[in-house]
């Protein structure tokens, strides 16, 4: 049986999640795609941390070793930061290799050029995992855009901020205590700056903007405010008025202008994002025909993020002409 040959760039939380999901769901993938998916190589920074991997997988710090492998079909990218991820993905697309990325920081800035490069080379980029982790917002929006015009997005796109605001509101604790608790539970990184100052939500909003409007607002014109200046007194005053502070990313078009903002907003109980608590993400999508749809789900984590990336893999390879296997899957499911 022909195989889909995949490389993992990065073998941390997300990379290991992809490996686990591909391994545990190999049979389902074989039925869906008519092919096995094989991880042939893994790129890391420090190979000595990854000694227990099977011998038939190349483990390397050298991307050249990966991109020159014969018959490589797809790279999953789960490393951190803008470079070298951008250079690696550009190289992969130029070689006609499909790309699936979780790297929101890099993709927010370079989505336009990478998507253009993918079109030029007749390959695909999956980026579901960049925005709201395991919650399928990208695919839902792509589906809606076939007939609807998406007019507005309002979203909670950072689980760390949402956890902190929920903890402050439900248990009357202050920001510092709630942040320390989020770190202890693994919901906040050692350096949580990008989460609490709104940068992470901003990056995801720009990815949504690129998808929906095929454009982004000038970054310096987008007001971006984090949650760290909200006090317990603010939160309690909101509660007394039956309202809640939520950290909201919003984008819509006014005339020809894209308007976007990321900031803590006071929501009343009728708002679709009022009840989104804890580490969940949520996105309210308002479109001209269907009205408002709200998706809620895990915004990060090993398996939710890997799930989004493996769903991308299926979406890419199911549409390859020789794949007849969705029918096979349906036939099997009916047995
Ligand atoms: N964690 C989540 O829940 C989540 C959710 C959505 C999106 N993401 C995104 O997914 C990406 C990966 O996140 P993560 O949590 O898996 O990170 P992580 O646990 O820190 O793992 C990063 C991996 O990338 C490797 N790496 C880093 N820089 C590299 C370089 N220059 N060359 C080669 N390898 C390099 C590291 O190698 P070593 O193992 O040798 O150190 C490690 O294996 C990030 O862009 C993140 O924003 C993460």
From TrEMBL:
E.C. designation(s)? 1.1.1.3
Q: Which Pfam families match?
A: Homoserine_dh, NAD_binding_3
Positions binding NADPH in this chain are 104
Q: Does the keyword NADP apply?
A: yes
Q: In which pathway does it act?
A: Amino-acid biosynthesis; L-methionine biosynthesis via de novo pathway; L-homoserine from L-aspartate: step 3/3; Amino-acid biosynthesis; L-threonine biosynthesis; L-threonine from L-aspartate: step 3/5
Give, as one word, the top-level EC class: oxidoreductase
Alphabetized PROSITE patterns for the sequence: HOMOSER_DHGENASE (PS01042)
What family, per the record?
Belongs to the homoserine dehydrogenase family.
Q: Which named protein is this?
A: Homoserine dehydrogenase
Record the organism.
Thalassobacillus cyri
Taxonomy, top ranks, is: Bacteria, Bacillati, Bacillota, Bacilli, Bacillales
């Amino acid at each position: 049986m022909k195989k889909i040959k995949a490389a993992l760039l990065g073998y941390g939380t997300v990379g290991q999640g992809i490996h686990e999901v591909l391994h545990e769901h190999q049979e389902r993938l074989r039925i869906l795609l008519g092919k096995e998916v094989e991880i042939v190589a893994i790129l890391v920074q420090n190979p000595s941390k990854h000694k227990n991997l099977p011998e038939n997988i190349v483990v390397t710090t050298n991307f050249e070793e990966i991109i020159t492998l014969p018959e490589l079909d797809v790279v999953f990218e789960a490393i951190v930061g803008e470079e070298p991820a951008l250079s690696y993905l550009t190289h992969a697309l130029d070689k006609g290799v499909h790309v699936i990325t979780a790297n929101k920081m890099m993709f927010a800035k370079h989505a336009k050029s990478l998507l253009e490069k993918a079109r030029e080379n007749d390959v695909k980029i999956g980026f579901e995992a960049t925005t709201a982790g395991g919650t399928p917002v990208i695919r839902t929006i792509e589906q809606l855009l076939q007939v609807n015009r998406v007019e507005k997005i309002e979203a909670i796109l950072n689980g760390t901020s949402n956890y902190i605001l929920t903890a402050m509101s439900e248990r009357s604790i202050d920001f510092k205590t709630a942040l320390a608790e989020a770190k202890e539970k693994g919901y906040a990184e050692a350096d949580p700056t990008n989460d609490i100052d709104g940068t992470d939500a901003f990056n995801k909003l720009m990815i949504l903007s690129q998808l929906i409007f095929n454009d982004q607002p000038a970054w310096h014109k987008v007001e971006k405010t984090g949650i760290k200046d909200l006090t317990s007194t603010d939160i309690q005053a909101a509660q007394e008025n039956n309202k809640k502070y939520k950290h909201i990313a919003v984008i819509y078009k006014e005339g020809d202008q894209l308007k976007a903002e990321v900031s803590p907003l006071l929501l009343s109980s009728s708002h679709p994002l009022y009840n989104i608590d804890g580490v969940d993400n949520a996105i309210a999508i308002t479109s001209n025909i269907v009205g408002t749809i709200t998706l809620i789900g895990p915004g990060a984590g090993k398996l939710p993020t890997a799930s989004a990336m493996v769903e991308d893999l299926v979406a890419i390879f199911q549409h390859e002409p020789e794949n007849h296997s969705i029918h096979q899957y349906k036939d099997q499911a009916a047995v």
